[in-house]
């Protein structure tokens, strides 16, 4: 990759004081520190009616799809709503498809009020697989959100480190679909050095 990787975060929470948004901003800060250009895609700023494949595509939906398509890596964050990811996030993902996500590196993050947040990450991983995205093995499940966040920041040091790692991994593996070519060129380079 001959430019800085572009990492965007898609926030599936519409709350003004969203802890999901706080966590995604922290992950993006880590991605910037690792050399990426970053952007938060805040669904509060997009007018996305319920997805109707028979209706004309809203301008904001096209803008969202373009932002995702231009990204080398996408961080998807959601609150845990009834054991799955949020409705606004599902609607936003319905406006995107394989053209936007195919071959893109994706990192997943979930914030829950309870103790064992896992199912939304499984559900999102399945969606990403359907969209032909490359989902990072590193994922972040943040439990007990009322005590994990304080004053607009992640108060739990271990979780903060995991969120930072997610941002770093998004940069490390951005453009992962190009890796076979990179590996091939490295093999050729190594093979060539043995002839001298």
List the helices and strands and how they pair.
Layout: E1 6-11, H1 19-33, E2 37-42, H2 59-69, E3 73-79, H3 87-94, H4 98-101, E4 105-111, H5 119-130, E5 134-142, H6 145-148, E6 149-150, E7 153-154, H7 157-172, H8 179-193
Parallel strand pairs: 1-2, 1-3, 3-4, 4-5
Antiparallel strand pairs: 6-7
Protein name: NADPH-dependent FMN reductase
GO molecular function, one term: FMN binding
Cofactor: [4Fe-4S] cluster
Q: Beta-strand level of the residues, as a percent range?
A: 15-25%
Helix count?
Answer: 8
Order of helices and strands: EHEHEHHEHEHEEHH
What is the CATH topology descriptor? Rossmann fold
Name the shape in a single word. Answer: globular
The CATH architecture category equals 3-Layer(aba) Sandwich
Question: How many structural domains does the protein architecture include?
Answer: 1
Q: What's the arrangement of strands in the largest beta sheet?
A: 2-1-3-4-5
Helix content range: 40-55%
Question: Major β-sheet, in short?
Answer: 5 strands, parallel
Terminal CA distance: 29 Å
Total number of strands: 7
- Level-1 CATH class name: Alpha Beta
**Overall residue-averaged pLDDT value:** 90
How large, in whole angstroms, is the Cα Rg?
18 Å
Question: CATH superfamily name?
Answer: Flavodoxin domain
Estimated structural class: alpha/beta
* Poorly predicted parts: none
The protein's oligomeric status is single chain
Walk me through what this model shows:
One of its GO terms (molecular function) is oxidoreductase activity. One of its GO terms (cellular component) is cytosol. InterPro entries: Flavoprotein-like_sf, FMN_Rdtase-like_dom, NAD(P)H-dep_reductase. Its cofactor is [4Fe-4S] cluster. Belongs to the SsuE family. Isf subfamily. The chain is α/β, with parallel strands linked by helices. The protein has a single domain, classed as Flavodoxin domain (Rossmann fold). It contains eight helices and seven strands. The strands form two sheets. It has a five-stranded parallel beta sheet with strand order 2-1-3-4-5, sandwiched between helices. It has a two-stranded antiparallel ribbon with strand order 6-7. Strand 1 (6-11), helix 1 (19-33) and strand 2 form a beta-alpha-beta unit. Helix 1 (19-33) packs across helix 7 (157-172). The longest helix has 16 residues, at 157-172. The radius of gyration is 18 Å and the shape is globular. The two termini are 29 Å apart. 39% of the residues are buried.
